[in-house]
Amino acid sequence: MQGKSDNNHSGPLIxxxxxxxxxxxxxxxxxACSPAPQVSPPADIGAEWREFEGTWTAAGxxxxxxxxxxxxxxxxxxxxxxxxxxxxxxAFGVRAEAVVFNDSATGMIGRAVWTDDRGDQAWSExxxxxxxxxxxxxxTFIGGTGRFAGIAGDxxxxxxxxxxTEDGTVQGQSVGLKGRVRGGQTVGGRQ
Length: 191
Prior knowledge:
By secondary structure, this protein is an alpha+beta fold. It is built from one helix and eight strands; from the N terminus they run αββββββββ. The protein has one helix spanning 2-33; strands at residues 50-66, 72-85, 92-103, 107-115, 121-128, 136-144, 152-164, 169-182.
């Protein structure tokens, strides 16, 4: 008879277990049907402005034509290196190339490409006084590839030629190159 009394007590236990199972299933269903919690995306590392300084040295060829006795126009293709420094990116070097058109009366326009050791590039537009009375140049980043994709920023410097030959060979360097950049996967180079 003892087995019969055990069976009588198992009925309420089965009902309690079934009730707990039903409550657990309803709780899981309620959580599954509720909207996902809103999680803020991580802060963009490239969202803040970062400053840099550097020295750009380059050599190349320049073709000059006279526009009267006091005005000249020139086209130059320059290749060299740019060494960036600063607290964010000390001693980071890139290959730097520029193509520029200069009119001694109206100023200079050009384009520059900075290429790192991985082949990733940062592109910029150049504008400057480039006149007989001044040679201040401003660069504005317009995009890039790889880790420089999506960068924005600007930089400025003064250019001085240290060698100019009659056949059009020139060498020069920047003076006081400073800028700021944000975006992309990196700032000034390294990730």
